[in-house]
Amino acid sequence: MPNPRLIAALLIAALVLLGIGLTFYLAGNDGLEGDENIPPTRSTTTPLIAADLRPHLQSVTIRHNPSGRVAQFMRDGTTWQQAAPQTQPADADRFVNPLNYLLSQPSRRILSPVSPSDLALYGLDQPRFTLHLQFSPPQSQPITRTLQVGHSTPTDDGFYIRLNDENQVHLIYQTGLLDLLLWVRE
Residue 111: what are its φ and ψ, rounded to 5°? Predict the structure, then answer.
């Protein structure tokens, strides 16, 4: 007689695999087709934004490029306010914590150098999302950093990012960034 627990475990495993396959099918191939054109990579422990600059962040603008939706946030002292599309306090779980995580996380990998003609491989020729970060350090001119968000990685656990107009591409985990992108994607 078949073991009912074994049958239940096999059914659950089959459903999980079906769900994963369906997720990839519905999402389409958003990553790289192959690895033949990937430039050399290196690991890093350096965060996207330098630690001494992060405390001086004054505004964040998140744009979903295909739709034109924008969310803007401004810092008032130690608190964040959503300034657009509506004015309200910024939710710590949906904005402040993900922002802090994004700014402090290091890139998983850095692909460098990346030629302008290869940006399409990573979805960075026409980035889906753009984040503009405005910093106001004391005794200094304002500094702007732009994060362009391209395709998700083939394993769907991260994104390809281009900082300003560098000739390198950062692979970062989706944690933090995904929560921020939801502000303009919902």
Answer: -95, 125
- Scan for tokens 């889906």, then name that residue: 128
pLDDT at 86: 83
97: Cβ contacts below 8 Å, ≥ 6 apart: 176, 179
Question: Taking the chain, what is the end-to-end CA distance rounded to the nearest angstrom?
Answer: 50
- Tokens at 49, concatenated: 């934004």
Q: What is the pLDDT of residues 12-41, one digit of tens each?
A: 866 666 566 545 444 443 343 444 455 556
What are the pLDDT digits (tens) for 104-129?
888 888 888 888 889 999 999 999 99
What's the Cα-to-Cα distance from 168 to each of 53, 107, 136, 157, rounded to whole Å?
21, 11, 25, 20
Provide φ and ψ at 124, rounded to 5°. -105, 0
Buried b (16+ CB within 10 A) or exposed e, 126-156: ebbbbbebbbeeeeeeeeebebbbbbbbeee
